[in-house]
Design goal:
Blueprint: H1 4-9, H2 12-15, H3 20-38, H4 40-55, H5 66-77, H6 86-110, H7 120-150, H8 157-168, H9 177-201, H10 204-207, H11 210-239, H12 248-259, H13 268-311
Helix pairs in contact: 3-6, 3-13, 4-5, 4-13, 6-7, 7-9, 9-11, 11-12, 11-13
Protein name: Envelope ADP,ATP carrier protein, chloroplastic
Subcellular location: Membrane; Plastid, Chloroplast envelope
Main location: membrane
Length: 312
Amino acid sequence: MPPVAQLLKHPLALLALVPSSVALFAAGAGAGAVAKTVTAPLDRVKLLMQTHSVRMAGESTKGIGFVQAMAEIGKEEGIKGYWKGNLPQVIRIIPYSAVQLFSYEVYKKVFRRKDGELTVFGRLAAGACAGMTSTLVTYPLDVLRLRLAVQSGHSTMSLVALNMLREEGLASFYGGLGPSLIGIAPYIAVNFCVFDLMKKSVPEKYKSRPETSLATALLSATFATLMCYPLDTVRRQMQMKGTPYNTIFDAIPGIVERDGLVGLYRGFVPNALKNLPNSSIKLTAFDTMKILISTGQKELEKIMQENQEKTS
């Protein structure tokens, strides 16, 4: 163990003293919490747009627009309304981001070939498994966040949870789990895989720059969102109380029949505005943390080697 004074001259070496798993978990959790809080208003607007037809069943089948949803929240609930449902989301995102990002690194090791090479299929499989793992761990909080976000008036997380348990039973916390797993698997698979491959193709001198991570994260998130958004709309409508859909095979034709194909992309604009910076912040912070950890390990090894040479 090097002297404290020596470590203070090389602060990055201190990171090497922290177990890498702990550092990666902390990086994923912190990045996810900040990103979700910053983009919470757009997330709530997206949820209201996605679930409007189910919430207004029997009253109106006309969709609600982005501007209308923004105005409705401000008029009825004030500024705080834009962050309604954010607490359970932040509570959820801490373990969610940590499990997702860390398990992706673990699954990449699992899917490596014997020669150490990780194929495109291996990256996709690792991303899909990471997405499903994190979703299974935190799914009840996601359902609770949705219920709290789409309810009008003022309520608390604990009150909504108790009402759900009393009126609908434990199963209500897992409504829409099937399409959620089906939706998150390809999204995370495509997002993480494209991010990794793009970073891999970047010239070595640019790989460690934050702006490189930010640009590749934006592009990978855009591509993944365009591909997978319809399944997100399906699962949100299946999570709603009183939903007429029991399976994904009921939901897709039902939404198309009632709202047209555009119904599957309802809320896409606020989702894209929220998801792109959210995903970019999360991946960039995590990638930067990995670079710092790697640099810290090299600095510690250098210090240890120098000390060994002095004593020999």
